[in-house]
Amino acid sequence: MKWKEPTFGATPMLRALTTANAHRKAKAFDLAAEQKKQKLNYPDWAQTWLRKYKEDWYIAQANGDEVGMRKAQKLAEGLRSKLHEMATFPKWAQEEMKKETVRWMTAEASGDIRGKLAAEKAGRAIREKLGLIDTTENTSSEVSVTNESKETAKPNVKTPAGKWIPAEFQYNGSSEAEKTFKRRSLNFTKMKWNQEKLHGLWEATKKIQETYDIQIDPRFLLAIIIQEGTGSFNTSSTNRAADGEHGAETNYARDLMKANSLVFGKILGYIYYGQEFRQAVVKNNKLRGITGKGDVFQYCNWFTPILRMKSKRVECGIYASDNRWGENVRKIYNTFSGNEASNYEQYLLSLDKSVTQKIAASEGIKLPDFKFKPTQNGNDSRKNDTNEWSIVGER
Q1: Residue 49: in which H helix or E strand, if any?
Q2: Region Disordered: start and end of each range (predicted)?
Q3: How far apart are CA 206 and CA 85, in angstroms?
Q4: Model's pTM, two decimal places?
Q5: Residues 6 or more apart whose Cβ sits within 8 Å of residue 282
């Protein structure tokens, strides 16, 4: 009989020492410095969970458990991302989302799959109340942990989610585009901007990309913000502007969700109805106010079909009555993107009609037929009649 060298697993004493050491390190971890780095305030309940995940990471590290280390890191990153999201919510929604986030993390820690699913469902309901787009059944906006999952989005991210969702703008960034946005944002008449708002905007476009595989360039939305001039997307139907149109929405979370939903609905409409729209633009180039070959900026501007995800219907609408709004947004977008407007247009043209058809079918939305014709309905930015023409959709 050959001698076999005995092997020993972790003894109860060694496990206890490892746990105690991990607990000590986690307790000593400087969360104040991390909050400053993340530009985020951690409430007490979140600090407790972040220290728990830090402790789990140290234990996994001591045991050489790389899977456990990745899991603890992803849970912590997911919680930070959730805190960034919650920071844009009104107080009532923050409290509700806090409860469901804690519920999810508790269920995750105990292996309670039903509890996690229930918390995710409740979280989606909160977002729907705030006007967020509906998510598909298989898409969770809660913290998720699998070995194959993508990195959770976080501030100052350097890796884009796709060509048309570039690295997040920094409010105090050094690029010409970032400096231009900050300089022009200082002229906003109603609301101020900061990194938190930029992060929320980038995250909103990423959620659409993850759910529907369509990229809304966040620089497009920034161009709209600059064009509107108030620091809001001007989506409020109760706080009307002087010209009677929708005015500044003081709740940023609601403002962003309404704008994102409107632009996304317009882009879905453009993918499906764009060919007919562009043909009408080219055909009527002789009319004052109608120029070019027709693009997504004009489509968003004018009275054209929008897929309304919340009400489950298609209806025509404008973003602004100013007939040249789309041209101005395109110019600003070019400034922020380095003259990428025509290339972004080509990206949208590369998306087949079936993309919109599948999304509409999954949401229970019927796609009616529309005809596009010229109408002499042009206004300037002060809603004065200019006698210019635009292309409108008509059933």
Answers
A1: helix 44-62
A2: 371-395
A3: 13
A4: 0.60
A5: 293, 294
Residues 21, 62: contact at Cβ < 8 Å?
yes
Token code pair at residue 309: 């995800």
H or E stretch at 178: helix 176-185
Bridge pairing between strands 371-375 and 390-394: antiparallel
- CA gap 250, 361 in Å, rounded: 34
Cβ-in-10-Å burial (0-12, 13-18, 19+) of 229 comes to middle
> Which single residue is written with the structure tokens 């923050």?
94
**Residue that has been written with the tokens 């659409």 in this structure:** 208
Structure tokens at 247: 């005015």
Distance, CA of 269 to CA of 391 (rounded, Å)? 14
**Contact indicator for 273, 302 with CB cutoff of 8 Å:** no
Q: In this predicted model, which residue has the larger pLDDT, 183 or 261? A: 183
- What's the whole-number average pLDDT of the chain? 82
In degrees, rounded to 5, the angle at the alpha carbon of residue 109 between the alpha carbons of residues 209 and 26 is 95
For the record, the structure tokens of 271 come out as 């993918």
- Please, are residues 200 and 132 in contact by the beta-carbon 8 Å criterion? no
